[in-house]
Design goal:
- Helix content is about 70%, strand content about 0%.
- The protein is globular.
- The longest helix is centred in the first third of the chain and has 27 residues.
- By secondary structure, it is an all-alpha fold.
- About 35% of the residues are buried.
């Protein structure tokens, strides 16, 4: 949300550049880290679809419809295909996540084997199409490049969950992540396209590799825990709230803070009504005070 607030107000300082470099690869990596591949592969299809349809897919489709209506998109027979293969705005994340979960279910490879297959595909997309967003081709069936650009992070997260991070490698991982972040920081405003990919990979893979250590800390902070449990609602609706506040003249920090407050109030209000809650993606009352900090089923608890 902080990154989107800075983007909407056209901030261009170093913090935004570094944050934009790792935030989505890291969230994809967290999703892979928290995915249970055994359960994903062995649960009946109807159970998996039922698990995700009401909790994620339904509110995602409602949000997609709202954003399209607000943006004034032209309705045509090709629109459903375009929305599925090239989702607009921030709504690309759910289809990409489900694509990667589907690959994990259908391809009976270990995390290491999936990473071995996914890495060259991701690298090819990064070098051929860059790190920006866009379609792979010009046809109706050309998918968003993020479907094939992010598998390296997702499957690396799965591998880290399987293998952990032995203490003897901690120093190497910290050094790798730090060097990647420093390298990435120096590339702000640069036109050295060849350097963007390795710098971002070192930074992001180093951060993903630290997930076992971070999860072992058992950090707990009530406001962040609440945000993590209700991350789907915040994820779906924060750009709309921010856009309204920006039109009202709010600057970056007030926009960010007011968005958090307004979304928290809206989440609590909608959570009282089961039907509304299903459609907008808000979460029911807290079940545990020790829920992990971070996104819910969307980017984190994928299974």
């Amino acid at each position: 949300m902080a990154g989107h607030a800075m983007e909407l107000t056209h901030q261009a300082h170093l913090a935004m550049w570094v944050g934009a470099g790792f935030r989505m690869p890291l969230m994809i990596g967290i999703s892979g880290y928290l995915l249970n591949p055994v359960r994903t592969r062995h649960d009946p299809a109807e159970r998996i679809f039922g698990r995700y349809a009401n909790r994620i897919l339904l509110p995602w489709m409602v949000a997609l419809l709202i954003y399209i209506l607000v943006s004034g998109w032209t309705v045509s027979w090709t629109l459903p295909i375009e929305l599925l293969l090239r989702p607009p705005f921030h709504l690309w994340y759910i289809p990409v996540l489900f694509f990667l979960i589907l690959v994990t279910r259908l391809v009976p490879f270990s995390p290491l084997q999936l990473l071995a297959v996914g890495t060259p595909i991701s690298l090819a997309i990064m070098y051929c199409f860059g790190l920006g967003h866009g379609a792979i081709g010009d046809s109706l069936l050309s998918p968003d490049n993020r479907f094939l650009r992010f598998p390296v992070y997702f499957f690396f997260g799965m591998l880290v969950a399987e293998r952990g991070l032995p203490s003897r490698y901690l120093g190497v991982v910290l050094l790798t992540g730090a060097l990647g972040m420093i390298w990435w920081s120096t590339l702000q405003g640069s036109d050295n396209d060849l350097a963007f990919v390795p710098a971002r990979l070192l930074m992001c893979l180093g951060l993903i590799a630290l997930l076992p250590r971070l999860s072992a800390l058992r950090l707990s902070f009530a406001p962040l825990n609440a945000l993590g449990r209700d991350s789907l609602f915040f994820y779906l609706w924060h750009p709309l709230v921010m856009a309204v506040l920006m039109m009202a003249g709010a600057d970056t920090l007030p926009m960010f803070v007011l968005s958090l407050v307004l979304l928290a109030v809206a989440s609590k209000s909608t959570a009282r009504h089961a039907l509304v809650q299903r459609f907008v993606g808000s979460r029911a009352a807290m079940r545990s005070a020790s829920a992990p900090i971070g996104p819910d089923t969307v980017p984190a608890r994928a299974a």
